[in-house]
Amino acid sequence: MKILILGAGTVGSTAAESLSQENEVTVVDLRGSVLRELQDRLDIRTLEGHASHPRMLEQAGAADADLLVALTDSDETNMIACEIAHNLFRTPIKIARVRAAEYTSRPELFGPKRIPVDTIISPEQLVTDHIEQLIHYPGAHQVLDFAAGRVRLVGVMAKAGGPLVGQELRQLRRHIPHTDARVAAIYRRKEQAVQGAEPVYETILPMGDTVIRENDLVFFLAARKDIRVMMSELLKLEHPVRSIFIAGGGNIGFELARRLENTNRVKVIERSPERARHIAERLRHAVVLTGDAVDEDLLQEENIESADVFCALTSAEEANILASFLAKRMGASKVIALINRPSYAKLVENQYVDIAVSPQEITLSALLARVRGMRLDVGQVHSLRSGTAEAIEAVAHGDEKTSRVVGKAIDDIPLPPGAMIGAIVRGPDVQMGHHDTVVQAEDHVILFLTDRSHVPAIEKLFQVSVSYT
């Protein structure tokens, strides 16, 4: 498939890296040095120029592209590029990153006879949704929806005191006999030979005799109603979140405060007096403070030690790390920080930051869902572990003659190495994927892949033969 990516920023570069393994990718950006660095690492084509200029789009191959992904820093550039690609080159599918709420709150602006964007990706909206889920499930590192939220993939750091910690996985059914959940993968930190080196994790495929250790990052699938019961097996459940501090009153910080201010005690710290005044006028219950989140006196005065969650959500990841470290040292119970660079996240997570949230990984998940949907009928797709792993909701079509999965028990399906079927959603019903579970037509099959390079094998597995109608 030919994919044209406009913008080689953090998200664009990550998208190019993820998609270039399976597709013919061209990247357009104004910064030649960034493009050269990308081309040194990836097997892609690059062009230096303005992403929305017709001549540049023509040179980049918009007329032959199957998909255009506009990810520049400018909403207007992204929308104009989609308009030109549609009108001049008839590019079939167009995805645009649009961040301003003035645009995203008006869906009537977009459509075939309006601004021709097929899919809008709003990183701020996606990141806010993600953080809100983490706050609703204290103790979780990731909470990811499948099948309209009926099934969730949850990542939890196993802690001493969890009933299953130190025991074999086969004990799970004895511990919670009336709850069905499936452990999808375990990530275990290796001992470091050099003090201070970037941590390395080994992937453990769960078996019945696998023993859960303290500080293992455990990903499990469960129906929404069973998540808290399963979490209680891996750690002592935390009290519901009441007090929330938000550092940064930008789009994400403001929207998170707006969503939570009716149910939680929310304080927002914003450096810019103008921005602080602007959001204070629009929030009804949250307290807005003008100041710096790394001002120790301010944090002490506002009783940071009473914070159940401190969210560092400024646009500068270095500032987020510093603010998180200070808040944690001063007594905040849990710290969540926006950190783009995976190397930074690996160094600080579980030490100075409880949960490092990657906007690029979250945005990439939304993009992958659309790209995978061009070859495969998918619901949700989530990128995990800095893009090395992936979770996919694939819909099974066909019958026993035309499909490689329909009518077969999970044990008989030739999954690639490191892939497992964790759950099946059949209409309103959710069932975990056991070895003798038989896949039926139109089932939503939730798969976890520890190695995303096997995605093409999954796509091939779920394709139906040409005789299927």
Describe this structure in words.
It is a single chain. The relative contact order is 0.10. This protein has helices at 10-19, 32-41, 54-60, 75-89, 101-104, 123-136, 172-175, 227-234, 251-260, 273-280, 296-301, 317-329, 342-348, 359-372, 455-462, and strands spanning 2-6, 24-29, 45-48, 67-70, 93-97, 119-121, 140-146, 151-157, 181-189, 201-204, 217-223, 243-247, 265-270, 287-290, 309-312, 335-338, 355-357, 378-384, 389-395, 419-426, 429-432, 444-449. The radius of gyration is 23 Å and the shape is globular. Helix 6 packs across helix 14. The mean pLDDT is 91. Strand 13 (265-270), helix 10 (273-280) and strand 14 form a beta-alpha-beta unit. The longest helix has 15 residues, at 75-89. The chain has a six-stranded parallel beta sheet with strand order 3-2-1-4-5-6, with helices on both faces. Strands 14-13-12-15-16-17 form a six-stranded parallel beta sheet, sandwiched between helices. It has four domains: 2-121, Rossmann fold (3-Layer(aba) Sandwich), CATH 3.40.50; 139-234, 2-Layer Sandwich (Alpha-Beta Plaits); 243-357, NAD(P)-binding Rossmann-like Domain (Rossmann fold, 3-Layer(aba) Sandwich); 361-462, 2-Layer Sandwich (Alpha-Beta Plaits), CATH 3.30.70.1450. It has 469 residues and is α/β, with parallel strands linked by helices. The two termini are 24 Å apart.
